Amino acid sequence: MDPDMLDPGTFDAGPLAAVSSEEHADGTWTVTFVRELAHPPERVWAAIVRADDLPRWAPFEPDRDLDATGPATLTMVDGNLREAIPSEVRVVDLPTRLEYTWGDDLLAWELAPTAAGTELTLRHTVRGKDWMPKVAAGWHLCLVVADHVLAGDVVQPIVGEDAMRYGWQDLHDQYAARLGVQGS
User: ∠163-28-20 over CA atoms, to 5°?
Assistant: First the structure.
């Protein structure tokens, strides 16, 4: 696929993922985001842990593969802006579970084989309820790109301000409604 095939004018983000939320005693919130990918868990695992693969679809560039516990740095990329964020890989259970911090956030990825490929469950814990639809919309777009990358397509990541051109606001509003988050 040509890198321009994900044209903002014709881009289809597909249906919303299954989402739910949970409030924790410390005031944090976890949004659980579930999506089916038509690729085997081993391939999806490589996409979520390999430093060479993550920048092709995710909103950050890691300083190392995320397949071993310990410190890491995830650098957010938004055009020419870059922000290095300290992280800690806490759990690695190949190829089913990965958990790491991203600044104050906690991301827990779970992969389960299905007849058609992989059920990916992402639990993203954030400091405020208003962040839940934001991260859901962002991960939605990132995983659309990841699906293309896993299929062998050459596409550009949809991250940062560029996500607005690909329907981020509409996805945000739809996820906000599903999660019961008003005014975020």
Answer: 60
Residue 47's φ and ψ, nearest 5 degrees, are -65, -30
3-class DSSP assignment, residue 50: coil
**100: Cβ contacts below 8 Å, ≥ 6 apart:** 66, 72, 87, 88, 89, 90, 91, 106, 107
Q: Across residues 125-142, what is the average pLDDT? A: 96
Among the listed residues 165, 176, 75, 81, the one whose alpha carbon sits nearest the alpha carbon of residue 135: 176
pLDDT of residue 184: 60
With beta carbons less than 8 A apart as the criterion, state whether 35 and 141 touch.
no
Biggest distance spanned by C-alpha atoms of the chain: 47
Provide the pLDDT confidence category of residue 11 given band limits of 50, 70 and 90: confident
User: Could you tell me which of 7, 15, 35 has the C-alpha nearest to residue 143?
Assistant: 35
Q: Which residue has the tokens 């550009």?
A: 156
Q: What is the set of domains in the chain, with CATH numbers?
A: 15-179 (3.30.530.20)
Which of 43, 42, 62 shows the shortest CA–CA distance to 52?
62
The pTM of this model reads: 0.94
